[in-house]
Design brief:
GO terms for molecular function: carboxy-lyase activity. The chain is an alpha+beta fold and 85 residues long. It contains 2 helices and 3 strands; from the N terminus they run E-H-E-E-H. Strand 2 and strand 3 form a beta hairpin. The radius of gyration is 13 Å and the shape is globular.
Length: 85
């Protein structure tokens, strides 16, 4: 199980960061190329991706990570690669 969230551009704007993460989750799932879920921990919206299929290969994980980056750019949430952790 991999959990992640976009990092805030500015500290203290938790609602905007959560909204960006919600938008990212919707965009990834709408692509039909991957399906992720979410949970809230310490009041923060976090995306989670299960990588547990017996047929999953490293290329699948890399392709999904690229999809996350693409969709983060599309929703305007990615300034640079350090924003996704």
């Amino acid at each position: 199980l991999v959990t992640f969230r976009l990092r805030p551009r500015l500290e203290g704007d938790d609602d905007a960061v959560d909204a960006s993460n919600r938008g990212l989750l919707v965009a990834v799932n709408a692509s039909g190329r991957a399906f992720m879920t979410h949970f809230v921990v310490d009041g923060k919206f976090v995306i989670r991706m299960a990588v547990g299929g017996a047929m999953t290969e490293m290329q699948h994980v890399q392709d999904t990570w690229e999809l996350v980056r693409e969709k983060a750019e599309e929703v305007g949430a990615l300034q640079n690669e350090r924003n996704v952790r």
